[in-house]
From TrEMBL, chain A:
One of its GO terms (cellular component) is cytosol. Its EC number is 2.7.11.1. Component of the EKC/KEOPS complex composed of at least BUD32, CGI121, GON7, KAE1 and PCC1; the whole complex dimerizes. This is EKC/KEOPS complex subunit BUD32. The keyword Zinc does not apply. It comes from Zygotorulaspora mrakii (Zygosaccharomyces mrakii). The keyword tRNA processing applies. InterPro entries: Bud32, Kinase-like_dom_sf, Prot_kinase_dom, Tyr_kinase_AS. It catalyses: L-seryl-[protein] + ATP = O-phospho-L-seryl-[protein] + ADP + H(+); L-threonyl-[protein] + ATP = O-phospho-L-threonyl-[protein] + ADP + H(+). Keywords: Activator, ATP-binding, Chromosome, Cytoplasm, Hydrolase, Kinase, Nucleotide-binding, Nucleus, Phosphoprotein, Serine/threonine-protein kinase, Telomere, Transcription, Transcription regulation, Transferase, tRNA processing.
From TrEMBL, chain B:
Keywords: Nucleus, tRNA processing. It is found in: Nucleus. Component of the EKC/KEOPS complex that is required for the formation of a threonylcarbamoyl group on adenosine at position 37 (t(6)A37) in tRNAs that read codons beginning with adenine. The complex is probably involved in the transfer of the threonylcarbamoyl moiety of threonylcarbamoyl-AMP (TC-AMP) to the N6 group of A37. CGI121 acts as an allosteric effector that regulates the t(6)A activity of the complex. The EKC/KEOPS complex also promotes both telomere uncapping and telomere elongation. The complex is required for efficient recruitment of transcriptional coactivators. Signal peptide: none annotated. Belongs to the CGI121/TPRKB family. It comes from the Eukaryota. This is EKC/KEOPS complex subunit CGI121. The lineage of its organism: Eukaryota, Fungi, Dikarya, Ascomycota, Saccharomycotina. It comes from Zygotorulaspora mrakii.
From TrEMBL, chain C:
Belongs to the KAE1 / TsaD family. This is N(6)-L-threonylcarbamoyladenine synthase. It holds the Pfam family TsaD. One of its GO terms (molecular function) is metal ion binding. Its cofactor is a divalent metal cation. It comes from the Eukaryota. A divalent metal cation binds at residues 141, 145, 162, 344. One of its GO terms (biological process) is tRNA threonylcarbamoyladenosine modification. It catalyses: L-threonylcarbamoyladenylate + adenosine(37) in tRNA = N(6)-L-threonylcarbamoyladenosine(37) in tRNA + AMP + H(+). Keywords: Acyltransferase, Cytoplasm, Metal-binding, Nucleus, Transferase, tRNA processing. The keyword Hydrolase does not apply.
């Protein structure tokens, strides 16, 4: 993580609000904080920052940072209103500087298996003492499918649906039932496009195949089951739309995510 | 009265107090726009502590990195609580319609970053019973239906718990005007 | 294990020689390339270092008058008129006296590109092949750019930004394919710039893009930037909307449409924006979008190297922006070639074709030499890399 970026963040937050960097993407860096920006609560919170990019003209940069920060925040607020859909809570938005405060989801998996995203979760069950086909895994994957189904049915796409962008949370350390949350909507959008939805499904399928190839077939089947369940709640209209999406998903699979284009 | 500072804005002292059974509402309404340095907020439109503080946070962000759109912190607090971009609409959160439950908010820029003995007298003009500023007190007596109308939360949104309702309000407040 | 020496050179030589013919757009390029037989190529992926020698590189560009684009039929005619001349010149400069003996393979652009021009070049290729009894190899135009770029810059495994009049793609190599990570959803960037140049009626010599670059450099007001739509969508981008927008502004400017408050001052009625400002804004906007999708691909594959190929890659501002991004991103680096290789040329076709040939790929039947307008970069099986 660039020294400049860190320095800028520490200056913005002042020493009164210490944060710890945890991840860096192409566009944003993510920190955790133990202090809430405006409530006296302590806990764990996420700060997502879009730093300025020096390569682009400052006016493009400022406008884009603001637009992207607001866009992501707005998506989160709209998605929250969809019943059954689980996304992180928006705590605060400073669009002028590119900061988003979000709730912290997930936990450290036992035995050092890492953070509770879907990728590590499946990995945990794939190791020697776990049963990769147990009912917990099946149930969880179906729930993940349902989350995506809810997202798509309501006219949204995620845009970057990898297994690291699905976080599992549970109500207590001894609970066996996990609730998946979709996170990181930086590339998300509202969409009516069957193509976008097909690509979402394809990206996740590829992510699962590449990291859990031995069990990928069953896993992807469970995902689709959960996904279809949502569409099937809506009778004939739902069935029609479901067919459209799955058909396009097959097509995307065959050609890879990119359309054929004139050279 | 609760006095606090946001960790990111150590030079701003924020004092907030909840008063019930206020007897001099008319007097306060008359003085509100001109001489009172603090904001008077209709407590029945405040559902949670979080809703209130998220609006104050917004005031400080706008003040520091953009520009506040009203004349003072007091009027800006009302604007940031409001779901509309129209200043006139935000008056609803003030004492436009009389209410005997009032929340006072004072934001003061100080040269240092520590809280000394809080000034208990800043809200002494308000003649009412001091109540604890906490979610229980607020949500029970809050006019949730009016809030729903103001924030355009229709009946399809049925939160299972109070914190979900509060979350919807915070969402709207954080994005208002952006 | 990749063995690039699997097929031996002909004529008892210790080196390979290839003739390359390129004509997918308005540039007709002919080049001759020599690859020495080198021990290290027997095992391992050294295709970025063939120690190639460029024996000749000639080109003629079909340039239309200002304000006009080039049409397939006229372009094809130009290529037909020039190919014999250029092939002879290339062979002569390369010191090739007996083509039948001295050439291992004749490489031609199979696609993608404009149909008629591609076709006129392949006819020349087939004729030479039949005349001299030299095998043919069909090359993907994009792969030609990539392989030439790797060879010239010695970049081992960079993310490739391929930007030209007909293509805009972000590519990364993985498991025998050049995978497309991001691309344009509608028009190519070179096409966008060329069409705007037509709107501005600026000269097409030496190329419309070059002239836009010069105008942008001469912009006096670089601090304020005209706001244009910014249309990156995930890993892809779209440019037709921006073109339509800026075309309208330019037309209003020329028509003296005082009502347009972006262009004309409300009180003094003077033009606030010049042609240079428009070019500057267009470049800054389009290039920022390209750099962004390139950065996304780099994050995805964990790379900090970028290779820019294709005609638009000659643009120094684009190179500068890309360099800034790479530097800020874990001290990475940008690789670019100069106009001899950025712009379509025959050498890149010869070089890439020779790599294919050395892996045993060449035309067995003339029916395989049909050209095609659509030919995606990821359709090519990259046998010469691990």
């Amino acid at each position: 993580m660039s020294e400049d970026v860190l320095a800028k963040v520490y200056e913005y937050l002042t020493p009164g609000l210490p944060v710890v960097p945890i991840a860096q993407g192409a566009e944003a860096v993510v920190f955790t904080s133990e202090k809430h920006p405006y409530l006296p609560n302590s806990g764990k919170f996420i700060l997502k920052y879009r730093p300025p990019k020096r390569y682009r003209h400052p006016s493009i940069d400022k406008a884009l940072t603001k637009h992207r920060t607001i866009g992501e925040a707005r998506l989160l607020t709209k998605l929250f209103l969809i019943e059954g859909l689980k996304v992180p809570k928006l705590i605060a938005c400073d669009a002028y500087n590119g900061y988003l405060w979000l709730e912290f989801l997930g936990e450290e998996l036992p035995h050092g298996k890492g953070f509770s995203n879907l990728k590590n979760f499946l990995w945990m069950y794939a190791t020697d003492d776990g049963d990769p086909y147990c009912s917990i895994v099946e149930e969880t994957l179906k729930k993940v499918g349902q989350q995506i189904g809810l997202l798509h049915w309501n006219g949204y796409c995620h845009g970057d649906l990898t297994s690291s962008n699905i976080v599992l949370s549970r109500s207590g350390k001894n609970e066996t039932s996990w609730q998946p949350y979709l996170i990181d909507f930086g590339l998300g959008s509202t969409t009516d496009s069957v193509e976008d939805k097909g690509v979402d499904l394809y990206v996740l399928e590829r992510a699962i195949i590449s990291t859990h190839s031995a069990h990928a077939e069953a896993y992807n089947e469970w995902l689709l089951k959960g996904f279809s369940e949502i569409y099937k709640r809506y009778g004939d209209a739902g069935e029609v739309k479901l067919k459209e999406v799955t058909k396009r998903f097959q097509e995307v699979r065959l050609r890879g995510r990119k359309r054929s284009m004139i050279g | 009265m609760i006095v606090s500072r946001f960790p990111q804005f150590p030079h701003y002292e924020i004092s907030i107090a909840l008063y019930e059974d206020v007897t001099n509402v008319e007097e306060l309404r008359a003085k509100a726009n001109s001489s009172l340095p603090f904001a008077l907020i209709n407590a029945s439109l405040v559902f949670s502590v979080e809703q209130l503080y998220s609006a104050v946070y917004r005031v400080l962000i706008e003040h520091t990195y953009n520009k506040i759109q009203t004349a003072s912190f007091s009027s800006e607090c009302l604007l940031r609580l409001s779901a509309s971009t129209k200043v006139s609409e935000s008056q609803k959160f003030g004492l436009k319609y009389p209410s005997n439950r009032i929340i006072c908010v004072n934001i003061e820029e100080t040269t240092d970053d520590s809280i000394e003995r809080p000034d208990e007298t800043i809200f002494e003009l308000v003649k009412g019973k001091s109540a604890v500023l906490e979610d229980e007190n607020l949500s029970k007596k809050c006019d949730a239906d009016t809030l729903r109308k103001i924030y355009k939360l229709d009946q399809t949104f049925q939160p299972e718990r109070p914190d979900e309702f509060s979350r919807a309000l915070v969402n709207a407040i954080q994005l208002r005007g952006l | 294990m990749v063995n690039l020496n699997a097929v031996a050179p002909g004529g008892g030589r210790e080196y390979y020689v290839a003739l390359g013919l390129e004509g997918s757009a308005n540039k007709l390029g002919v080049g001759v390339v020599k690859h020495p037989v080198v021990g290290k190529h027997e095992g391992g992926d050294f295709s970025y270092d063939c120690e190639s020698q460029i024996l000749s590189n000639v080109r003629d560009t079909y340039i239309t008058p200002a304000g006009e684009g080039f049409l397939p039929r006229d372009t094809a005619r130009h290529h037909k008129n020039w190919c014999v001349r250029l092939i002879k010149q290339a062979l002569e400069e390369a010191g090739i006296q007996n083509a039948a003996k001295d050439l291992d393979v004749i490489c031609f652009t199979k696609g993608p590109g404009m149909g008629a021009p591609l076709h006129s070049v392949v006819v020349a290729a087939r004729t030479c092949s039949l005349l001299w009894g030299v095998p043919l190899v069909g090359v993907n135009h994009c792969v030609g750019h990539i392989e030439m770029g790797r060879e010239i810059t010695k970049a081992v495994d960079p993310v490739v930004l391929y930007v030209s009049g007909g293509n805009t793609q972000v590519i990364a190599y993985s498991e025998k394919r050049y995978r497309i990570f991001g691309e344009t959803l509608d028009i190519a960037i070179g096409n966008c710039l060329d069409r705007f140049a037509r709107t501005l009626r600026i000269s097409n010599y030496p190329s419309p893009g070059y002239n836009i670059e010069q105008l942008a450099l001469n912009c006096k007001k670089k601090d304020t930037l005209l706001e244009l739509p910014y249309t990156v969508k995930g890993m892809d981008l779209s440019m037709s909307g921006i073109l339509a927008y800026i075309d309208n502004l330019a037309k209003d400017l020329f028509r003296d449409n005082r009502k347009n408050r972006q262009l004309f001052d409300r009180d003094s009625d003077e033009a606030k924006i010049s042609v240079e400002d428009l070019c500057f804004a267009l470049q800054e906007n389009l290039f920022a979008m390209l750099v962004e999708i390139t950065e996304r691909a780099m994050a995805h594959v964990n790379s900090n190297q970028v290779l820019i190929v294709g005609g638009v890659g000659c643009n120094l501002r684009l190179q500068e922006m890309m360099q800034q991004m790479c530097q800020d991103r874990a001290n990475g680096q940008v690789h670019a070639t100069d106009e001899r290789f950025c712009i379509d040329n025959g050498v890149m076709i010869a070089h890439a074709g020779l790599l294919q040939y050395r892996m045993g790929d060449f035309v067995k039947d003339l029916s395989e030499t049909v050209v095609t307008q659509k030919f995606r970069t990821d359709e090519v099986y990259v046998a010469w890399r691990e």
